[in-house]
## 1
Amino acid sequence: MKKRTRYLANHNRIEIIVTYECNRQCYNCEAQVRQAPSKEKITVEQIENFIAESIENSKKWEHIRILGGEPTLHKDINKIMKVLVEYKNNYSKETIITLVTNGYGDYVNKIKDELEVNYDIKIENSNKTSDIQSHFSPINQAPIDMVEYKNEDFTKGCWITTICGIALDLHGYYPCSASAAADRVLRFGLGMKKFPLAEDSLSNSFTPFCSRCGHYYNEINDIAEFETADMGKVEELEHLINSNQKRIGEKMNLTEEIISPVWKKALKEWREENSYN
């Protein structure tokens, strides 16, 4: 049996989930938009604090990706982008800022086009036209509900935290955006409130989230040959992921929602608490 690579949190890249509101309801949504609909969003003040702490800690981010939900639905998305681009222009000129959008609907495309014209950013547009995204991982199929992962070492994480980086949402910092979205439902309260330094591995969050995350057992995690995916391996790992992601995604072929017992219980409790019908 092949020894699984240990994936480390990448503190040079960050994904910021600015809102959990979305105009699509995709099956197996990583942000739990369909499973636990919400309009929770980060504030401009939180973004300003993030930038102030980045500068205070001499942090020049390699990549900042803005996610949702659908980020263009945030009422203050222009102010958020202005703060981030000012940081890039005045302090960290090499930082890449990317807005990730579903590209669905006139309003979303109007805001997306305005942001692209007004700011030095990249646009990552998935152009979604259906709520069935067959390449998605079964995000709510928890490994701890599967007998083959009974004795698994979940502190090894998965490729996402190494390639995409750590994450920030309104509740704090997490090892990845999937764990941030999961904590919104699971209510573990594991979001770090203080700016995570390089020595903050965030690995204490791997087990509670990876053991419940469908990304963990995606076969793409097994393509790397090295024992540990440290920061010196990021470029090589990124090439491997990009070369294999489409092929492996097509094999997923998910056309329905998969929710294992751990998640059925968590989502039921979340809906009851939030009076969701």
## 2
Amino acid sequence: MIQMYGVSMRYKEDIEVLHDLTMSVDRGEFAFLVGPSGAGKTTVLRLLYSELIPTEGQIIVSGQNLSKIKSSQLPYFRRKLGVVFQDFKLLPNKTVEQNIAFSMRVTGARRSQIRKNVERVLKWTNLTHRRNALPEDISGGEQQRTSIARAMVNNPQIILADEPTGNLDPRLSLEIMRLFDRLNRQGTTVLVATHDINLVAQLGKRVIKLEHNPAVEE
């Protein structure tokens, strides 16, 4: 499902964030990507949804070789992915429901399908009662659940999450991870980048560790 072969990434000639990284995540797997600040976790995720192009190496996601993908194909490729950001990236002037629906509207989905999918993920993330609230009027945990619902609404094959619990307390962090676990049990491949080793230990999932070197699996 996700394959990276000999991937290196330099932002400038003398700043190499990733060096010769080879890793894979199988279809239907839940894996954590861990490592210290600056190890390249966020860079890996940005490479996987083709926001960045690697300096060297090959990346294959859901059967698509990203070195060969055309810019016109990117929107279709990204529909297979759901991305959850640490800072939520919610639109401040749109309600919870509108934020979730937005990612379907930009793909040109039918209104009936948007309503059906949005209703489903609102219930799944326990946000039905907050559907008309603006982001500034809901808690951090609710904002993150909104971000997850938005990532889920297109029924993606893969969820990529970048430090999704970085701004949450331990109880809410575990709640968010259990949402990812439920989603994974339904067949979605999940890759979560995090520095929270204690939280990782509670979930008991596969760990891929970055240490400014090729990945080490634990």
## 3
Amino acid sequence: MLGLMQDWPLRIHRLIDHAARHHGARRVASRSVEGPFHATDYRTIRARSLRLAQRLAMEGVRPGDRVATMAWNTWRHIEAWYGITGAGAVYHTLNPRLFPDQIAWILNHAGSRMMLADLTFVPLLEKLAPRLPHVTRHVILTDAAHLPATSLPNATDYESWLAEADGDFDWVAVEENAAAGLCYTSGTTGEPKGVMYSHRSNVLHALAVAAPDMFGLASADRVMPVVPMFHANGWCLPYVAPMTGAGLVLPGPKLDGPSLHELMEREGVTFTAAVPTVWLGLLQHLESTGAALSTLKRVVIGGSACPRAMTAAFARRGVRVVHAWGMTETSPIGTVCGTKPEVAARDEEGLLDLQETQGFPPFTVDMRIVGDDGAEKPWDGETFGNLQVKGPTVTRGYFKADRDALTPDGWFETGDVATVAVPHPKWDERPLLLVVPKAGREISKQSLLDHIAPRVARWWLPDDVVVVDEIPHTATGKILKTKLRERFAGHFGMP
């Protein structure tokens, strides 16, 4: 026997439909790439996204086609996400900080046929264009007055292009499990891997991470996603904010401390999210100027471990740090450090101890710790093991891969990409290259770094090269990362 509830597929457009109908006048403020501030609202974003979907259909874009974006967090990029998925196509976010060879590889692997890009990235794309014959249209996210002369094929400005659609269009009714977004991992152990999100997974993820013990957003919040939309699905904030009716504040290309602080104070930001290095710049600005955070209440910090001193610095200013862990493969939020009632009575130092941990998962993410022998290990805060996750917002495989990436009993192994990093006073962790030389060979640190430099993104370059006799391994041949971290914990890179 089946239930008698309505069939209401979980499509992404329903989020912006809800925001436009019930929170239509909610302010969405952006710092534009061109410079001036821009203000709009959810009702207008929904209308322009629908026109974008229509304009894509006019270009011949069909369900399942990939449409690439290389853009900062602005209102136009938000419109692009909803418009692309509203046409049944797949938004394919590109990280411009990757090495150009990797960007070209990713675009060719994804087969994206169109590019929506900010002015910032026109020179980069011009250099890549000869290697990307399948990208037949370039829409630059600006107006006619700011469109530069460019050699990009079929280049046009966004506003003129969008004006060719009248909005008399219906969202394309794809299946809820249809592909919606494509985001590539960093490729630290080989070529990048494509993670393909669905409409259903994104909507479920937004519902899950909006919960009180997770992001805890409400319509009274003003949300500033500093984490770029090209990083791990934008941490789902372009979906969570409209779904809850929270206002959006979008920083555009200026992510330095003074610029972020100006925007926070100007727009009354209550909630924000980014990696630790971003907040280091903000805290340094506050320290040097004596400025305050008059409206900010919560900051989500993920991407790498948040230093205790940073958590304490925010706490002194009345801001609660929410430590989070996730992966591109988990949509991306895997855990959030909320305060359960069992630990709420801790003193200040005890709460800081708690906030150094990554917390617990939202509903839709299950996890377990498994040893090298395949047996599940206890959650006692001491036992080490391989972290595995599963759920409707966790990938089961990679785009164009010939097999699923799951264990035989259906879990995703999060440790498939391993790094060895050491503590760093500014960046929290930086790469350290460990080399075991062949017999009779001598290693030149500089020659190794010179060899690596043209082949990887700049921030991946190790700060130092250390020659070791051997790399410790587990019984099953995996690198024993715990031993390496213990041994090199005090190594801070080249003098």
## 4
Amino acid sequence: MEIQQPPLMSSFDHVPVGTMVDWNTNPPSSGPHYPIWAAFQAYTTPVPRGYYVHDLEHGAIDFLYNCGSAGCPEVVSTFQAASDSLPDDPVCAQTGGGVRVRTVITPDPLIPTKVAAVAWGWLYLADCADLPTLEQFAKAHYGQGREDLCNPGTTAF
């Protein structure tokens, strides 16, 4: 397991949906992103990076996995447990949108490891899903994006 704090990218601009962005980390932990973000939930198909980077800007933790076509339900289950371990988010409670915490769980076939967690300006990379360290990462970096928002996102990609 490796935790990194790469430099934030200098541009946080919104770019049109579908724009190819050259981020400075893999997976991306800051930088240009789409004008709409992914809804805070678990997905079975990859959320395009431009959406989930916007989630990071809103203080989310993104849990990413690369398990190929076979999938890895044990990793997803561990990610869900890490998300569930976060305390209720008061910012989300104020919006009344039914979201308890700002997390996204999604496959990402482009990450260099089987497991990754990302927060604004932080990366967690590993070959296996270790619940104690994922919980620690999520609790340490949750809610620290540039915009402290918990508004509903999209599920239409």
